[in-house]
Design goal:
The structure holds two protein chains of two kinds. Chain A is mainly beta. Chain A has two helices and nine strands. Chain A has a single domain, classed as Beta Barrel (Lipocalin), CATH 2.40.128.110. In chain A, strands 1-3-4-5-6-7-8-9 form an eight-stranded antiparallel barrel. By secondary structure, chain B is of the alpha+beta class. Classes of the chains: A mainly beta, B alpha+beta. At the A-B interface, loops of A face loops of B.
Amino acid sequence: MKSFLFLFLYLLSSKEYYKIQESNVRFTSSQTQETIRAFSKSLKGVIDKNTGQFRFSIAMNTFDGFNSPLQKEHYNENYIESNRYPEAQFIGRVIEQIDWSKPGTYTIRAKGDFILHGQTKNLIIPSQIQVISEQEIRIKSQFKISLSEFGIKIPRMVHKKLAEMIDVSLDCRLIKTDS
Amino acid sequence: MNILYKWSLLLLTLCAQWGNIQARLLDNKFDYHAIAVDPNNRIWLGSSNGLYVYENRQLNGFAKTANLQISSLCFVGQTLLIGTQQGSIYLLTPGERIPQKLVQFGHPISDIEWKPNHPLLIATKGEGYYTIDPYQIKHWSTKNGLHDDFIYQVDFDSMNKIWSASDQGLQIQDKNSFQFLDSKDGIPDPIVTSFQIKDEAIYFITQSGHICKRSIHKSDTSNSFTTLSIQPSLNHILVLDKSLYITSDSGLLKYSLIGQEIGQTFRKQSLQKSIVDLEGNHLIAGKKILELLPGEQLQWITESEQQPIRNVHSILALPDQLWLTPDQGLLYIHLKNGTEEFTRMNPAESMIDITDIQSKSLNELYIATSGAGCFIYNTQNKIFSKVPLNATQSGNTILALSADSNRLWMATLNGIWYRQNLTDTFLSLETQWNHKKIIANDLLLRKTNHTLFASDGIGLIALGQSGLYDFGIPLGISARDFYHLEEDSKGRIWTNARHQGIYCIDGQKVYHFTEEEGLSDNEIVSFSILNNQYVVCVSKKGIDLIHLNNHFITSYPAEEMSLDFEPEYQSISQSGHEVFIGTSQGILCFGIPTYKKIIIPEVYISQLKVMNQNQAIKEQQFEYDQNYFSFTVSNRSNHQNHVFYRYRLLGLSDIWSVTSNHEIIFPRLEPGDYQLEISNSNNRNFHNAHVCQYTFSIKPPYWQSIWFIIFVFLCFASLIILYIRFREKNLNKIQLLEKEKAIAELEALKTQVSPHFLFNSFNTLLQVIEEDQEKALEYTSKLSDFYRSLISYRNKNLVSLEEEWQLLENYFFLQKMRFEDALHLHISGRSENDVQYWIPPLILQLLAENAIKHNTVSLSHPLNIEVSLKDHQIIFRNNINVKKDKEKGEGIGIENIRNRYKSLISRPVVIQNTGTHFTVMIPVIHRDELQNLQFSSS
């Protein structure tokens, strides 16, 4: 009877999660000859409040803000190959325990499989979770992505224009949702 | 006193330098993620592009594994298990080149562990771990007890509990129950990436860079997590006897077991994993690097660069204490758990040249000096007190002393002086026994009241009941200069002689060890007996261990250990498991790590070249002209550049040859059976060495083999027989032909002179003359033509068909006159080409004559003869009207024709008798065939 109750509670509670309401993802490639910046506001994602499991995804062709329209085309066609690999995903779990009921800023490590350009890599991404209220949280994160690790080759011609390590920063607001 | 106190309080920071012990770079081509050592001490490496093995001082890849991203390697006995990023386990059995896929998991393999009599452990990044024993495979994950499925490493502790490092701290499995060490227990970081258990403690590193230590007993709360240090991006931890070695993205870090950082970071490169091999060497693998360090066998104890220890003249090691005398005076080092603490004492100026330190009692030391006599130092109150000596008698320069609580013996430049009790005055030994002065480098007070002196110039001297006597000469020891004396637990005396190695005197038996027996150098600078197991001999060329039980010698050549050292004479002392060696650069601590095994490196033939062509080593039969053999031999050892090989080729010589060359060459081997035996050693001592054998044979040349001689003989004999038979056959043929020709000539002559024919011809002529004179003339001319032809043909073998036609017509003309309408000749197929055909002469005439001779020729029964040429043969056909009275000589003509043809050509003469008709078919010879005939027409 007791175990049944636990199971019931588990099932009930597991449906509590935070869902992205607003987001801003930027990436920057700083190389000697050129600095490329792009951003997207269409990050989607959820975090399970109880287990800390999460799933984020972003459509790669929603990035905008390149130095020229041609650059955006190159980005979509030659490097990211948005048609073949339309999404980047990060699926995993938050290592640290977070007291969602207590407002404050928590430094956490999100660990999971990062899928980009059809390649999967296990990454640990340090992030900050700011619990504003039990209903609303904010996630900020800054990390680097190595292009070669995800099988994105930089032609020799653009070696001085495109960096191997891409800085990514992320800022998003999540709202608690029950369903 | 004040100054001394000040000095003694001065604590100097320790800085053991990596630089003193250098690493050997083995390879820098690939990025290695996994490393393992097999029972033969070969190094196996797993990289993101396959498997490699380092053997024979070079790296060999496995081509069939190029697509494997290897994440872990583990040996189960001789079999290698390979875990990959793709989540599969492969198995490589010894000798194979292609691994077999064993099992496929859903997540990358992070670790494989195996210990004898334990299940195999396989850890995965995402599905927990598996325990595999011969009876069952068990899967452990969050479904049956674990807190986390992402496992970095897994291992057993001494109680057979399974420890695993995960994202949620350490997980401990004891059969079916689980314990956890996680955030609730105060772990500084739950992501534990690597750990090792040693002596009831677990050492681990975390993702955020903590280096931690804790008791393995969870209930032991008094000993909670101790964070030793925090460093970024750590990869793997290795705990050895004395230190922790941690590989990180910025190099190898070394810590003492209590967490003190030792030395600078080694190799500022990304390093993945470090292990120790069976010989105690430390192997480090990482991004484009594979290096080998001598490990913990050799460690330098030196102070900081500002206060270096130089020229250590004498050392005394007591448990956890070291007393030594470098140039600057007396130095005390306290050896704490993993670290050292230095205290310098500055004794009076006159005491600077300290030659020997011996312990007198628990708190007192004897200190011998050069020029200032002997002192007693009290370690408790730190007071020096001079031993009262009669300076004029004994001299103040003491070379060595030997003492116990009461006795004190001193070897001085003025002979041996001793006192048996503390209160006695010193006596001169030589004066007492009326012996010439003994300048001794060392003296040994034996348990059996015997005292021995290692003299400089007059050999080994012993003091017995009856006085001083030469100890060495009766035992056959010829050396005169000795340095040091020591007695082992079995009462054997060991002594090193100048340039003559080391002697072991066991009662009346003497063992002499020199370079021939395997020492690195004949000049042993100092030696000490360690643990009653080894005699540690130090020379400039390195350190040699003589095993007391079996006299087997293991060498640590200075070059191999990257040792650049200058050991001081007689400056050595041992304590516990370590020997401290005084050198001009500092103190070298030599110990045998607990994990080190003495392995006898295996020797094998790595390459065989015959006539400079590579041959498979399986090949054992060679041809007579494959007689230039070149063997390349190798040994499976990681640290010996200098290897000696001993070999002999049974079948050529029974004498062993010793070489340091990897290539053994035998030029121009004679045919025969051979066996090559090779053993190896890192010195010249081949005792217990592994022997490799290779048997092969060289076949004798074919012209010497019996079958070839028989074959040649048979060929020769059959050639002679064939020749004789051919010649006989030819002669027979000629003979036969001659005979036939003779018969034909005879027949022709018969015809020529046949009276019957002549008579008939003349009768006919008579009739014709009466009737027609014109015709008679023609008849006569034809007759004479015919006879001329007959005569001219006598010597011919062949005539042209045209001539033969002519002759036949002539003959017929003559006969026609006689028989008139009773005889008819019909010739068909004549042409101009008939000149090209050849035929033996008189054949057609002979046939016609036969036909007339054997048949009735009358008007009522006319004889019709038809001759035609068709298909290269003449068909001669006549009707048969059998005569009642037969003429003689029947059959001779036909037989003669046949025989003449047989000797000419292979085509037969066909004779048919149908009863009404008689047909003979005679082949004619075309001009082109003439050349093929044995007898051309003359």
